[in-house]
Design a protein that fits this description.
Strand order of the largest sheet of chain B: 2-1-5-3-4
Distance between the termini of chain B: 30 Å
Distance between the termini of chain A: 84 Å
Strand content of chain A: under 5%
Structural class of chain B: alpha+beta
Radius of gyration of chain A: 24 Å
CATH class of the largest domain in chain B: Mainly Alpha
Number of strands of chain A: 6
Largest sheet of chain B: 5 strands, mixed
Helix content of chain A: 40-55%
Structural class of chain A: mainly alpha
Oligomer: heterodimer
Strand content of chain B: 5-15%
Number of domains of chain B: 2
Helix content of chain B: 25-40%
Shape of chain A: globular
Order of helices and strands of chain B: EEHEEEHHHH
Shape of chain B: globular
Largest interface: A-B, 22 and 21 residues
CATH architecture of the largest domain in chain B: Orthogonal Bundle
Chain lengths: ~475, ~160
């Protein structure tokens, strides 16, 4: 009898808990609007919305390769299954044409669609919750004045129970803190502007903060470095690996132009981010740079000393010469058959990377490259194999890819040489296997281009600049 | 001494291991099809095949090529018996000055060997690294399409290697 009573009590507690959860998780439908209601918006508001959409990188995920802008359909592979980006053009049936501004704002603030369904956190509402009503109004004006495109996004491919959207409510209970950005009164206006943009629309942490086993950003490891589509998103906090510490000026340049003299070129998923930031007012990019540089903090005396030493090394080397080990006292590695990596570097890489020609046309001297210091060689592997494709119809950085001639063994030898020569960190574990994996998954890690006609160029160099 | 296999023939090459393949092809082997354009791997006029993949020979040192199968435009056919790629470029008269054409043919060859019915978009994306300063792109495009068609008919009649 006692056991039955205990069981009954347990069931009662579970039912009450479930009821409470459903009450918590349930979100009402917001009435649809007639598409014509969204007709007229102030052009200035639409323009501001376009800039905010660029900062939010909306078009990069909400556009399928070769598809119409913002019409969705891009497959986002996650550790839990594949999620397809939705159509956010104002098409009444397949897009958000029947969404009121209130419905749009709720999606941004709470991660809930117009019908009350919980959205998956692949849509970074954990960041977008910080966006103000004013900015959501501008974003709404921008989206509702785009060309409506009829395009149904493919159904998500998620296993049970993740395919039940109610499950996302549990995730939110654990990890999601709703709320508009609250300024830090101890900091100035530019810093706060930057923090608002970087933590909110910019969602930097979505890639640059590591995630836990449930896919939520780890709270104690803000900006400590993560992973995105097969590329490393390097740490952008005090643990920044950049051999030359970032400053507000250098970060602003990098974010707007996609490259910087002593840090190199933005690639992988960062390339469209910089393309977008090149299309927004400079003050916004500078504010983000101000905030990120402040999170990185003042570099340690050791890092400063190393940077000074690296910068003092001669800018040019004889093309083909094997470069002195970065900052060390060791004898230069000689290019012998026993040292295949050194020989490959001297023959294939050095002619551009040590020629003294400045970035973006010349190769970055690799002793200045963060990529040589990363925990994994994912980014150098991607760039060495597939190069930096030429921008269409514009001047810009370019590097030929070597996938056709560098097999996995030669890549491993080259990477080992580069790591030991250009950084002071321990050897990368098994670069050969990672090379093979990246080669096998190239389609998935290919540089994502925005199609022509988007509000930002397809890659960071695809833009008129002063260089 | 490096041994290179070019167009099916083995050659012992007396050159430094860091010598670019392009120099060896043109100066040692007197194969003048691959052209020197920019020397920086940015224009594509030096494109050849290595194990079926398009490779920029001006930035490829020969030390990477031991045991690999190199194919140049001379390996696609002869003046008397042009291969389908060459035949298509002749039929479409796809050359203006012609400097970029051997590179264009070799890069297109790499694609069509895998997929002779490649779509226009796939061809455009694949040909992106190769430049033509004369503006002959539409004819080059037509020639590549024609080459694909020729290869498909050729593969059903004879087994002529491209």
């Amino acid at each position: 009898m006692k056991l039955v009573r205990v069981l009954l009590a347990l069931v009662a507690v579970l039912l009450i808990g479930l009821g409470g959860f459903v009450a918590y998780a349930w979100q009402p439908t917001i009435d649809p609007i007639e598409p014509s209601q969204a007709a007229s918006f102030d052009p200035a508001l639409v323009k501001r919305g376009a800039e905010l959409a660029a900062i939010g990188n909306c078009a990069v995920c909400h556009t399928a390769p070769g598809g119409a802008i913002l019409a969705g359909g891009l497959a986002l592979p996650t550790p839990f299954g594949t999620i397809y980006a939705t159509n956010i053009t104002p098409d009444p049936d397949t897009g958000i044409g029947r969404w009121s501004e209130a419905a749009f704002t709720r999606a941004m603030r709470k991660g809930v669609d117009r019908e009350g369904n919980h959205l998956y956190p692949a849509f970074p509402f954990d960041h977008f919750t910080h966006v103000t009503d004013t900015d959501n109004k501008a974003l709404y004006a921008f989206l509702m004045t785009r060309k409506p495109i009829a395009a149904e996004a493919p159904a998500n491919d998620l296993p049970f129970p993740l395919n039940i959207r109610m499950a996302v409510a549990g995730w939110k209970l654990l990890f999601f803190r709703e709320g508009v950005y609250q300024p830090d009164t101890s900091k100035d206006e530019i810093w706060n502007r930057g923090a608002y943009l970087a933590e909110g629309l910019g969602h930097c942490g979505a890639c640059h903060t590591p995630r836990n086993s449930l896919g939520a950003e780890k709270r104690g490891e803000h900006f400590a470095g993560g992973e995105a589509e097969g590329w490393s998103a390097y740490p952008i906090n005090a643990a920044s690996l950049a051999p030359i510490p970032w400053t507000v000026d250098s970060l602003t340049h990098y974010l707007r132009d996609g490259w910087e003299d002593v840090h190199g070129v933005a690639r992988g998923p960062m390339a469209p981010v910089t393309a977008n930031l090149g299309a927004v007012p400079q003050e916004d990019a500078r504010a983000i740079a101000t905030y990120v540089a402040s999170v990185m903090g003042e570099p340690s005396p050791e890092r400063k000393a190393r940077a000074e030493r690296l910068m003092a090394e001669p800018a040019t080397h004889r093309p083909g010469a094997v470069v002195q080990t970065a900052g060390s006292q060791t004898v230069p590695v000689s290019a012998t058959p026993e040292n295949a990596g050194a020989a490959i570097y001297a023959a294939a890489c050095s002619t551009c990377h040590d020629a003294g020609r400045p970035v973006p046309y010349g190769g970055l001297p690799l002793r200045l490259s963060t990529a040589m210091y990363g925990d994994t060689p994912a980014n150098p592997i991607n760039v060495i194999l597939y190069g930096l494709p030429a921008p269409e119809g514009e001047k810009g950085p370019i590097m030929p890819g070597f996938a056709g001639v560098l097999d996995d063994d030669k890549m491993a030898a080259l990477l080992a040489y580069m790591r030991s020569t250009f950084s002071d960190r321990p050897a990368w574990p098994d670069p050969r296997k990672l090379t093979a994996d990246i080669r096998a998954g190239h389609e998935a890690t290919d540089i994502r281009s925005l199609p022509t006609g988007s509000n930002a160029p397809a890659n960071p160099s695809k833009r008129e600049t002063a260089w | 001494m490096v041994t290179l296999s070019v167009n099916g023939q083995s050659h012992a090459i007396d050159a430094e291991p860091d010598t670019p393949l392009l120099y060896v092809l043109r100066d040692d082997l007197k194969l003048h099809g691959a052209k020197y354009g920019c020397g920086l791997g940015q224009c594509g006029s030096c494109t050849v095949l290595v194990d079926g993949e398009a490779v920029l020979s001006c930035v490829t040192p020969i030390l990477l090529l031991e045991g690999r199968q190199i194919t140049t435009v001379e390996g696609l056919g002869t003046i008397e018996a042009p291969g389908p790629m060459q035949q298509a470029f002749i039929e479409e008269q796809a050359a203006q000055c012609g400097y970029c054409i051997p590179g264009m043919m070799m890069r297109a060859q790499a694609l069509l060997q895998k997929d002779p019915s490649a779509s226009d978009d796939a061809i455009r994306a694949h040909m992106e690294p190769n430049l033509c300063r004369c503006g002959t792109h539409m004819r080059i495009m037509a020639a590549i399409k024609r080459a694909g068609a020729l290869m498909q008919t050729a593969s059903t009649s004879t087994e002529r290697a491209g």
